[in-house]
Structures are given as structure tokens and as C-alpha cells.
Write a structure and sequence with these properties.
The protein is α/β, with parallel strands linked by helices. The protein has eight helices and eight strands.
């Protein structure tokens, strides 16, 4: 499968930032329904919990995509679970443990059980509301998960499109009854893909944000990858979460 141009660019950006971040997470693992062991970083919220956010990475990536992002969500009152999916790689100077241990290549669609296993793990370990957050290919998969699991109470998609063979992401989006935040790079192709999915979500539940300065996927919130636009993009994400998962 040939990666779209913006995904290739995002991978190149990620490879240029390999400085490690402090290890503040607990390493956890759990089994997907087919027996694959999924590795993840679990972080607790600071103060009273508002919910748990499941963080899924882009193509060629791993849970370290969220090393600088998860602590900001923790500070805002959210627990986080950043997952190594089996379709991934060694961006950000880190090893994708799930992919490395599976010892075979996987399609984007193959990672769906990993997302469902993460949701099962979170459901078993917290009574707080759960949101799913996807980056690039996983931002398509979170629509599938949310459409079929009422445990999911909010969805955030960074650079979503019809990436997943065998699925219509627009059709999955049309089933949603939860708040949805959709954003992308300010690239015409990405904006149009995001718009199509936002329109598919019924009852005006989807918010599309087009940044002035952005890059592909969740990297749009990383200051190392998007120094000009990250802070502004964060403001829109946190404003959405304040409405979708408010403080009690």
C-alpha cells in the first residue's frame, strides 16, 4: 500500500525528532481477541478524573507519539492509555513493542482488535467516561470502534480519511450519537476528507476544525513537529473536551 504524500511527510518529520521524553507512564499489556499481546502506556489524571482517553497512533508509529501530549491531557484531568498497535513502527526514536513482538506485517484493518482490546482494558479499570482519539489511519478506525461500542462517549480524529480496506468510514460515522472532533492539516485533500466525515455524523454532533498551521495526525499538537500552530490547536482540542467531557 502506497502511503499518501502527507503521511509520508509526517513520518519524515517524526524521524527528525528522536529526543526521549521522561518516562512518567506505567507500562501495561493486555491481549487482543486473537491473542496478540498489546503494549501501552497508562497515565493517571492529575486531580479529579474527568474521564479516560485512549490514544492511538499513526502509520509507522507507536505510543511515543503521545509522550509530550498525554501529560497535558493528564493535567486537564484525563487518564490516558497510549497504545502500540500491531500496524506501526519505530518513529519518534522508540520501538513499537506490539509490532516487534508480532513478527509479521499487518494492514491498518488488522489493528482494529488492538483498539477494541484497549477499550476493554479501560472499561475494566475505570468507571469514568471513555473517549477514543485516533491519528491518521487510526483516526479512521476509531469511528468503527465508536459506532459499535456504546462505552465510547466522545471521539477525536486527527487527519481521518477512508484509509481502511473493507470499511466505509462515512457509514460508520453516520451511526454515531456522541460528540465528535475532527481536524486535519490545512491541506485541501485532508480538509475535504475530514469534511466528508463531519457531514456524515448526524444531528450536528461533529465539529470540524481547520487549523491555520498544522501537520498530519496528532503531530499537529506537538511543539517539536508544529512549533507555530501547536498551542492554538491545543486550545481547540481542550475546548471540545470541556464540552464533551466536562468537569463535575
Amino acid at each position: 500500500m502506497r502511503l499518501p504524500r502527507l503521511i509520508r511527510l509526517a513520518i519524515a518529520v517524526a524521524l527528525s525528532f528522536t529526543a526521549p521524553y521522561p518516562a512518567l507512564a506505567d507500562d501495561v499489556s493486555f491481549a487482543a481477541k486473537d491473542g496478540v499481546q498489546i503494549h501501552a502506556d497508562l497515565r493517571k489524571p492529575i486531580g479529579t478524573s474527568r474521564g479516560t482517553i485512549l490514544l492511538f497512533h499513526m502509520a509507522g508509529s507507536n505510543k511515543s507519539e503521545y509522550e509530550p501530549l498525554a501529560p497535558l491531557l493528564n493535567k486537564a484531568g484525563f487518564g490516558t492509555l497510549a497504545v502500540d498497535q500491531r500496524s506501526g513502527g519505530d518513529l519518534w526514536g522508540a520501538v513499537n513493542e506490539t509490532a516487534a513482538n508480532s513478527r509479521t506485517s499487518h494492514t491498518y484493518a488488522d489493528a482494529l482488535p488492538d483498539l477494541e482490546a484497549a477499550l476493554g482494558y479501560a472499561t475494566a479499570h475505570t468507571s469514568a467516561p471513555i473517549a477514543v482519539w485516533g491519528s491518521s489511519y487510526s483516526s479512521a478506525l476509531v469511528f468503527v470502534v465508536a459506532a459499535h461500542h456504546p462505552e465510547v462517549k466522545a471521539l477525536l480524529a486527527f487527519s481521518p480519511a477512508e484509509y481502511i480496506s473493507g470499511y466505509s468510514i462515512q457509514e460508520e460515522a453516520s451511526r454515531l450519537t456522541i460528540p465528535v472532533f475532527i481536524t486535519s492539516a490545512p491541506d485541501a485533500e485532508e480538509v475535504m476528507s475530514a469534511m466528508a466525515l463531519a457531514k456524515a455524523v448526524p444531528n450536528g454532533l461533529a465539529q470540524q476544525y481547520v487549523p491555520r498551521h498544522g501537520v498530519h495526525g496528532s503531530s499537529s499538537l506537538r511543539h517539536d513537529a508544529n512549533p507555530v500552530g501547536a498551542a492554538e490547536n491545543w486550545r481547540h482540542v481542550l475546548a471540545f473536551l470541556d464540552k464533551a467531557m466536562p468537569r463535575s
